[in-house]
Structures are given as structure tokens and as C-alpha cells.
Amino acid sequence: xxxxxIESSCDETAAAVSRDGREILSDVVYSQADMHALYGxxxxxxxxxxxxxxxxxxxxxxxxxxxVGRADLDAVAATCAPGLIGALxxxxxxxxxxxxxxxxxxxxxxxxxxxxxxCYVADPALEPPFTAxxxxxxxxxxxxxxxxxxxxxxGASRDDAAGEAFDKIARVLSLxxxxxxxxxxxxxxxxxxxxxxxxxxxxxxxxxxxxxGLKTAAVNLLHNAAQKGECVDRAALAAGVCRAVxxxxxxxxxxxxxxxxxxxxxxxxxxxxxxxxxxxxxxxxRQNGLSLCLPPLRLCGDNGSMIAAQAxxxxxxxxxxxxxxxxxxxxxxxxNLSRWL
Length: 341
Prior knowledge:
Elements: E1 2-7, E2 12-19, E3 23-31, H1 33-37, H2 44-66, E4 75-81, H3 85-102, E5 106-110, H4 111-122, E6 130-135, E7 140-145, E8 151-156, H5 162-172, H6 179-187, H7 212-228, H8 234-260, E9 264-268, H9 275-287, E10 291-293, H10 304-316
Parallel strand pairs: 1-4, 4-5, 6-9, 9-10
Antiparallel strand pairs: 1-2, 2-3, 6-7, 7-8
Helix pairs in contact: 2-3, 4-10, 5-6, 5-7, 6-8, 8-9
């Protein structure tokens, strides 16, 4: 089965072509990062306009690289939730129009499920059930992946996502956008123990996260130092922030896996590219006898491959959308999008 998939939930316009889910024939990403760097973060209206300008070009390039014609497509898929609503609508409406014109099914895909599916592309042997961590700019979620389309959210951030904290702290450190990657680079060689930073939890919710306190503590440390004319060891602060996030995330993910009786952990999303988090996950999983799937860095950020992979399993499960399919800024990964029109 050959699927063309579109991803446009934030500031990447991406398209990929897959065969039977895990075989990726092409993957094209147009990044708007340089444009949004002027503003220190994503401007939703600019993102939507850029998607509208680029989506057809990106899709055509994906087909060309795959050596696939329009008549060869068996389905067209797109991310429909969660994300920036204007950006989502551009990609979804383009994909729905393609599916209608070609008389093939349209498959709506949940962005979080897509990130999990990036692990299927990275590891052909990976199969549910397993425990998944999805950590990105807008989401920090622990999920029990019971099968390809049935999932239970075990824990999530109650306030800022880990990636959001990274980006805001990076901005105050005057690091370039995207801030998470720049913060990770700055942290190399820094002393993570030089500054005391909080590790917050949620009483009665052992798998939930809270990162607003970490963000506030780091920003206040920088502002107080500036007011006093003192210098801050920027590398040490960056290292401390990365360590604090990993210290908050890794034990909860491992505990969730053991609680559910899973023997495999998968991590995905842009924050899963963080070197400190990856190292701590590898160490903790090894100590607890758990297998770990970490996708390569190119599959951690938003991409079309992950949507194409998940779309195949949504199709097999009968989760088919229609031309009336809507998009949603927020939605739990446990929901099947085809039920929401």
C-alpha cells in the first residue's frame, strides 16, 4: 500500500511516501526555522502562510523522489491534531483535496501517534505493546502503546512541556531559535551541579510532569544576576537545565513501563534528540532490563515519514476520514481522529 502523507502541525511543511508503513520511499521537509528565528519563536500566521505556499511543492517533490505517480497512490494522509490550527488546516485540506481528486481514502493522523510511529521507521522489529515517551516543544507525554491504534495516556505535563521550557530558557540566554538544540550544544562541558534547579512532581499523579518551576527558576536566576551586574556560567546553567529535565522525565518513564509490565521503552519527539536525556534513558533502561528504541535525530523532529507510517496502521484499523474531517488544536493521543468530524 502506497501512502502520501502531509505534516504541517507547526513550522515544518513535510511530505513523505511510504509503502506498507515502514518502508519510506521519500521524505521531504521544508523548514521555516530561519524565518521564525527573527521573532524568537513560531509566529502562527506566518507558519500558515508558508505552509500554503510550499505544501504542493513539497508533495510533488516527495512523489518525484519516490518515483511514484499520482495514480499509484492508494491513500493520502495528513496530521489533523494537535498543533497550530491554521497550520493543520492547510496540510489537511490539501491532503483531503488530493484524496478526493484521486478517489482514494483520506487518513487523519494524530501528531503524537505519528511521533511514536517514527520509532517503527527507525526499528523495523519494534511492535506494541511498549511504553512511549513523546517529548517536544508542545508535549511531554508518557503513553502505554497497547497496539498500533489503541493507546492510554499515563502521564503528561500539567503546565509547560519540556521543550517549551528549553526554548524559553534558551531565549533568555540569547541563544538562536530553535532554542532546544542550541541549549544542548551550549551545555556540552558545563557543570550541571553548579546551580540548584528544581525537579517538580505532581502529588497523586506519579507519571505527570511540571516544568514551569524549572523555567521560572532559570529565568529568575538570569534576571537577578543581570540586575546585580553578575556573570552567569551559561554553559553550567544550560547543563543544569538539561539534567533537571532528564531527572524529571527518565524515572517516570521507566516506572511507567514497569508499572504496565512492558519490557520496551520508545522515545520520540524533538526533545528526544537532547543528548543528556538520551544518555540517561539508555542508562536507566539498561539498569532495569528494558529495551530502548531511540530514533535517529532526523526522525525526532516533525517529518512526513512518521505520519506516513502511522497512517498505514490507522488504515488497517479502519480509521478512515472524509472530506468533512476537521482539525483540532488539542486532542489526547487515545482518541481516534476519524470519529471527530
